[in-house]
Amino acid sequence: MSTSTQKAAVLKGGEWIIKENSPSEIYTPEDFNEEQKMVMEMCSAFLDNEVLPLVDRIDNLEPGLMPALMDKAGEQGLLSTSIPEEYGGLGKDFITSTIVNEGLGGGYSFSVAVAAHTGIGTLPILYFGTPEQKAKYIPKLSSGEWKGAYGLTEPNSGSDALGAKTTAKLSADGKYYILNGQKCWITNGGFANIYTVFAKIDGDKFSAFIVERGFEGFTQGPEEHKMGIKGSSTVQLYFQDCKVPVENLLGEIGKGHVIAFNILNIGRLKLCAATLGASKRATTNSVEYAITREQFKQPISNFGAIKHKLAEMAIRIWVAESALYRTAKWIDDREHELLESGKPFNEAALGAAEEYAIECAMLKVFGSETLDFTVDEGVQIHGGNGFSAEYNISRAYRDSRINRIFEGTNEINRLLTVDMVLKRAMKGRLDIMGAAMAVQKELMSIPDFGNGEDGPFAKDLKAIRNLKKGILMVAGAAVQKLMAKIENEQEILMNIADMAIETFHAESALLRAMKISGEEADQASLYADFARTYICDAADRAAKSGRDAVNAFAEGDEQRMLLMGLKRFTKTEPFNTKESRRRIADKMISEKKYPF
To answer: Is 50 within 8 Å of 110 (Cβ atoms)?
Structure first.
């Protein structure tokens, strides 16, 4: 690994809004080492050879098939990438485990089962378990001998996880916690061996428990019939005086929320990785179809409308990938810093993910919406055949929709993005208000029409800086005007979140393009096309979000000043996005796949 990429963690979580990375400081997929490239290829080969030939049987929930496939994945080490060697894992870094999530992401229902097992099914015990709990369960989860699941959601508490009604009470002899209640939408629930289940001790102390299949009083419901991910086992769990040994309390009494919310931070980034892998496969399917499908005596891939679709699919994928691995490296570096400072493994892993919880929430939103866009356009490219079950694009379309609900709905993640930034500002972790005040002063001054710095990406960098100023201006004015009431203005908060999501991803794309510039000319030129096309569109979308927010809380002279400032901060240089998209699409068509 080049020493330049080791500086990536210089920015703390959320600091990208007020500070800059140089291209040499960020990590990109071009920095993958040989082992990481081999891991990606191994994941792809596993899907091609073991999973994709069986997708119809998987979707029919053929008994024993999914657990058998997970056994095979375990034999190849795909379930234990990030588990320490002392528990039978491979002990790889965070980036490599992210690569596995991406590499297996195109496996439809199988991807969901594996992600649930390696994430929410395993990590609560790995990070919060006692030495005895970890020694008992983690080696079996690592190998795939036992499958894991996670019981948080209840029929009347989805996003409001702490509103759960399942109760736990210590038995008279002090040997068991007696659980009563139910959980729903439990992925892997039909075949898992162990479950992390949340319940309130004495009705108010939200806590977590390790529940084994076979515990007295624990039963499951039938498989749910779902719109998509039909091959993923999804059941309800029932606890009727279920006896859980006291030694199976996970973490501290009343601290279940610490487990639930910390695991979600990691899960959100990993979900982005999985949707990225699925997006790439769906796009390749669409390219292949567009080349072979003829209309008006020529392949439809010759038509500009189709090229536009293919290119836009690729742009969003490439941008998502840029932001994903930039953040993954930040988390990896922070984890190593914490380990070197003497923190134990679990505290280092959780602390690193918490530091970048803002970015994880944004990645989850962007990745899931990129996949939804990709499969939707994929169906359109397939035309009537896209509506046929004979083509995998229809399966991809159905399966995609759940990702905007998994790991906290996208609405919740948008609200969390802004909420976390504001809370860190209040605690002094982020100097957002100082930066916002500087932007307010700039608004009152005469705009700088000078050329400033030069270089091939100078105008693009200026555009990103201005987009950040737009966020600070709108958010600062909204907080000043609304104060504590802002938490009830969800529409405004989501507008600000959308501005932040667009800007973070646009900056990640630009830095990646800048990092490779001066290297292989054709690739560098295409990367510049990706970044500039995205920046143009992102600025327009940010302008719309900003206007909607400003119009919701400002009026009169304040409104006019903010809208003028927004126009200034979301302005971009003219750029021929039609031609850039054609260059991107032509590369895809020539290679008959998503090749970037």
So the answer is: no
The kind and range of the H/E element at 183 are strand 176-187
What does CATH list as the number for 429-591?
1.20.140.10
H or E segment at 563? helix 556-569
CA distance 135 to 87: 7
Q: What is the mean pLDDT of each run of 10 residues along the chain (596 residues)?
A: 43 94 94 97 98 97 97 96 94 96 98 96 96 97 97 84 89 96 96 97 95 97 96 97 98 94 92 98 98 94 98 98 98 95 94 96 98 98 95 97 95 97 93 88 75 82 97 95 93 98 98 88 92 98 98 96 96 96 98 96
Q: Which two tokens stand for residue 324?
A: 């994903």
Q: Which of 154, 312, 407, 502 is catalytic?
A: 407
CATH number (3.40.190.120, 3.40.190.10, 3.40.50.12280, 2.40.110.10) of 149-256 reads 2.40.110.10
Residue pair 302/4 in contact by the 8 Å Cβ criterion:
no
Known active-site residue 86: no
Q: How far is CA 54 from the centre of its chain?
A: 27
- Rg (the chain; Cα; Å): 24
Q: Which residues contact 213 (CB under 8 A, 6 or more apart)?
A: 192, 193, 194, 195
| CATH T-level assignment (fold) for domain 3-147 | Butyryl-Coa Dehydrogenase, subunit A; domain 1 (1.10.540)
